[in-house]
User: What shape does this take?
Amino acid sequence: MTSRRTVLIAGAAGAAALAGGIGWWRAPPSAHEPPFTPDAAFPNPLRLPGGDGLYGIFDIGNHFTIVGKPVTEAIVPGKPVTLLAYEIEADGKRYRNPLLRMKTGGMVRAKFWNALEETSIIHWHGLIVDSNNDGHPHYAVGGGEIYEYDFPVPNRAATYWYHPHPHHLTGKQVYLGLGGVFIVEDDEELALQKALDLALGVTDIPLVLHDRRINEKGELVFAPTDDEKADGFLGEQVLVNWTPKPYLEATTRIYRFRVLNASNARVYKLAFKSGEHTLPHQLIGNDGGLLEAPREVRELFVSPAERIDVLLDLRAQPPGSAITLHSLAFDAMEHQGGPPAADTPTAAARPSAHAGHGAHASYGAGPPADQNAAAPVATAVAPAPAPVTRAVPALGVAMELMRIHVRRKVAFNRAVPEKLSRIMPIAANCGTARIITLDHVKMVWRINGHTYAHETTPITVKRGAVEVWEIKNVPASMPHPFHIHGFQFQVLERKHSPEQQKALAINDKGLAASDLGWKDTVLVWPGESVCIVIDFSHPFYGNQVYMIHCHNLEHEDQGMMLNLRIEG
Ligand code: C2O
Ligand code: CU
Ligand code: CU
Assistant: This one.
């Protein structure tokens, strides 16, 4: 193991030396456009997936190695800092947090090399895999170790993602940079791309939302207090594709945005606005892929780990106009009772400066090997990063995320297909359901009265069973994004929803447009019950152990997570 570590550190240093010249964002769309001066509120060009580098598009073919490691990148332009990333080197190119892309039915054969100094494992969020390939925390490997994945991907086309999943460390590792988008394509998806002349990274644009605290040096600061471990760790600004205050230059055509909320704890209420005017847009897909048909929407909640796939039509926008992606104000409903008193909206100014125990990404491979040789593996070293002094907006406070500048008129005569896919509804109703209760005692969040224990499996289901689950969030609670590994489900009904959720209902079951189709994560508000139906059929023999958990990563790391066994 020692020699493997040494090799890796040498390899990382070599790669860093090569790295200097690789640009972070693609060149402007056309060289003969007049120079553009963005407004001061959104001065940075949005990072877009290109041929390599950060978010480089990596088509999964042969076996590949993906390394989780500390890297140097500048989040704030001109301020290179250490953060964590997944890196692939292939065919002379280097990808960081690559946008993985493959076809339904293809294979993933990958070696995960953990070059952190603590345990980690990759979870493929939303993919239907056996439990050996799921990245369950009990497969986490130590620093310097390797985990081999080998699985087919039967999933429908959709925007999935991948991220670390070691127990107690998921929140920190995601926060410091690890994670990426995983796009699966099939014939329906390719037909849509063709119909709308979409190109990934140009007119089909992933928007990965991360709220982060960034200090004067440009470092990410992860330093949750006990209160923030209970509530979730919020950032003072929202990065889109790791770009602070981003803008996008666009033309008068239809754009597709695949939004992934990769934030630890922040829920967004997304809307596109031109000044005060909200632009309707089309929801075409979510966690598990395309809906049957596009749905016009004006605003949507997107909780941590959820994805929405939307079309924004800019044909009626005059060149020179600007559209802003907002997160609108909403009631965070943090009514958990005890401190912190987050139920006052003025908690917006909760200070984010904490002396002492902050983690930042310099804990990784750290200093050169010779200085590091005797250092114990698995601890976060590091002097605490300088604190962040800006106020952190509370959950539910309005924020502006990104500006889109309509630059130039183009002819675009494509029509949005009326039919996108076919969703076979699973016949079920909320009558007799397995009850899943979300509550807390003394600010420790629980599922059915349990917190996570490695060795226990509180929920067991027979392979092939079709079950209705009623996920009941108690009234004195917080919003919890509830997630299941290994399966996609359908949302049947929302009951006792708060007004702000009811206002988005599109049917008499209280569902929002974004509850349609196939889901792997669903937001459950305090006092609300959400019924879902899950078909536990899968092609894996023998017992499989997955998990269910809250995707607020602080809640998850504090134990709001259970093993789920499928008896095969
Ligand atoms: Cu993205 Cu266990 O989750
Ligand atoms: Cu998952
Ligand atoms: Cu939660």
